[in-house]
Amino acid sequence: MIxxxxxxxxxxxxxxxxxxxxxxxxxxxxxxxxxISSINPQLDExxxxxxxxxxxxxxxxxxxxxxxxxxxYFEDEGFTCIAADSGNKSEAKKxxxxxAELNAPDIARYAAKGVKKIIRAEVVGVPNSGKSxxxxxLLPRAKAxxxxxxxxxxxxxxxxxxPHIELxxxxxxxxxxxxxxxxxxxxxxxxxxxxxxxxDTEIAVQALSLFMKKYPQEVCKRFNISxxxxxxxxxxxxxxxxxxxxxxxxxEKAAKTVITDFRSGLIGKISLD
Length: 273
Ligand SMILES: Nc1nc2c(ncn2[C@@H]2O[C@H](COP(=O)(O)OP(=O)(O)O)[C@@H](O)[C@H]2O)c(=O)[nH]1
Ligand SMILES: [Mg+2]
Known about the structure:
Blueprint: H1 8-19, E1 25-31, H2 41-47, E2 51-57, H3 64-76, E3 80-84, H4 89-102, H5 104-112, E4 119-124, H6 131-137, E5 157-162, E6 165-169, H7 181-190, H8 200-214, H9 216-223, H10 232-240, H11 251-263
Parallel strand pairs: 1-2, 1-4, 2-3, 4-6
Antiparallel strand pairs: 5-6
The site of magnesium ion has 4 residues, from helix 6.
């Protein structure tokens, strides 16, 4: 059981909601490896009818057909959606074009009065989905703080990315849904939940069981193990020479290896949803 909803998130969610009246749209940054699981049902309710642009970020870490499947899913739901690799500046520019497209009616209405409308958008999403990275890619010089850890962004930062577009970086918010353990597992594996809140071994065991069903070849190749063997973590420890005193396989180290290799895309293009 992952206890993953820290108290400060309630405050973050409240602040995010309070800011909504000042914005034209919301850029909802999802992790493309689990876009459905990185949707916050509580946030969904708060956003109501506010215009949203879904960004399926980190598309470089999933296969092209999964990317297309997910974009279609959101578009079929009636949303504007774009897949992106926000570490890449030219990709990030497309996000701005989509945002302008989403706000085209307002821009036109102001233009008719001779005014160039400034679009203000709040950037939201679970921790570690790449919100700050995306904003930085839109700037000549990085301004938003990033990090491969949840909770790097604190406080309020409005950032002008063009003379007519301002983005507000927000701290990522999780939600207090303790009922869905699979979702919690995926968010932990993605690095959206602080690591002191879950057990690496538990997450790695669950991850390997999922990967072996969908991506057995990738896993076997990466760790040089066989798909038949039952205790994958032990096999990985042995294969990597991760041993404790007395020749006992270091399961915890093997678990950490699986998690970090997944996060950096070293196992392969893996989709969790
Ligand atoms: N592979 C890949 N990594 C990304 C991408 N965008 C962000 N990251 C990485 O994801 C981690 C979290 O990014 P950050 O912007 O701090 O996330 P935030 O918590 O949502 O603001 C960092 O290590 C980034 O380098 C992307 O499009 N592709
Ligand atoms: Mg951030």
